[in-house]
Amino acid sequence: xxxxxxxxxxxxxxxxxxxxxxxxxxxxxxxxxxxxxxxxxxxxxxxxxxxxxxxxxxxxxxxxxxxxxxxxxxxxxxxxxxxxxxxxxxxxxxxxxxxxxxxxxxxxxxxxxxxxxxxxxxxxxxxxxxxxxxxxxxxxxxxxxxxxxxxxxxxxxxxxxxxxxxxxxxxxxxxxxxxxxxxxxxxxxxxxxxxxxxxxxxxxxxxxxxxxxxxxxxxxxxxxxxxxxxxxxxxxxxxxxxxxxxxxxxxxxxxxxxxxxxxxxxxxxxxxxxxxxxxxxxxxxxxxxxxxxxxxxxxxxxxxxxxxxxxxxxxxxxxxxxxxxxxxxxxxxxxxxxxxxxxxxxxxxxxxxxxxxxxxxxxxxxxxxxxxxxxxxxxxxxxxxxxxxxxxxxxxxxxxxxxxxxxxxxxxxxxxxxxxxxxxxxxxxxxxxxxxxxxxxxxxxxxxxx
Length: 450
What we know:
Blueprint: E1 20-21, E2 24-25, H1 29-32, H2 37-42, H3 57-60, H4 66-72, H5 89-95, H6 98-104, E3 106-109, H7 115-121, E4 126-130, H8 138-155, E5 161-165, H9 175-182, H10 185-201, E6 206-207, H11 231-247, E7 251-257, H12 278-295, E8 299-302, H13 322-328, E9 338-341, H14 355-365, E10 369-372, H15 378-392, H16 398-414, H17 426-433, H18 436-446
Helix pairs in contact: 4-8, 6-15, 7-8, 8-17, 10-11, 10-18, 11-12, 14-15
């Protein structure tokens, strides 16, 4: 697929966003989120903000790609003051409709054919690129992400955050394993920063890693994505990946929580159980999550498995377990970012009921984003309707819904997307991806990408 080349001006984050101190981005994401959500929730103003006039569909000419974005995306990030700390999240939340709030928790594939329905009808707050855009190169991806942002700003009055990976960025799923074998953690950290810059250059915001699974068996989930077979290497290179990507002001996703490497079964096609005691879990699998959070990790991906040491209730998998996702993940490990439910079409997610019904349980338990990778929009519609029904009945309480929405808004704020020009430049992306020094470095550290 070829999209018409756009002419949007370069929009890049200010260089002060990348100031480094002792190998860490300043401020780390965890430190950035220290403003208490509970206080914000209790002081929200009554809905009173009237939306500014936005272009009509005819004016926007949505199908036009980046040129459309240029028509109504305000301001310019480059050279502008950093507005993240001044964005009033409470005001944004107060003007969101119930449909907007529910949609903010939904993540679906970024696909040209269904893009408008996903954003306009189902109000999706995030989108996923997971190798699904087979015929889209990096420049085309810029055009497509610009089009998605234009649609979102027109119809939702908020930008999207986009998760995943795509071809043409010099990345491959086993990159960190190659780095762990071929180089030191410092080199992997530098490679991660290069990849983070490339993600932002094409309009992606959340990097699919680090994988923190420590494999105890010869079989399991996404074995080719594992970093290493021992805790020390997984921890060391996982932290390097977080530091590097974060320095490029790009988000990271640690996975699969908790401890999917400790079972020989794959939750894509099985119901796994992690049968380890709590002390062993903490020592060998979970303590490094805390360290990654402290280093700036922005999101985690849940595991569709049972973990009796953390929640003995047989009706719960980790993705639908409040003891795991709220009491333990947030209460004990201190995570303050966005919790993403792994793809709900996976076999493991349906252990205790239909995926749309279990999605409500997942949000109640502590998930802030529901990943939906089913073809088309059928399942997306079912999940949207189920969450709307649960919110209207107060089974999904207003407090919990607002909490999840605020975590997404804070992530958008940290990314520098609120109140800013979110357009990205295909020309700049091509230049960045063609940097010979970066390409040679990546080839030497992480091996061949695509």
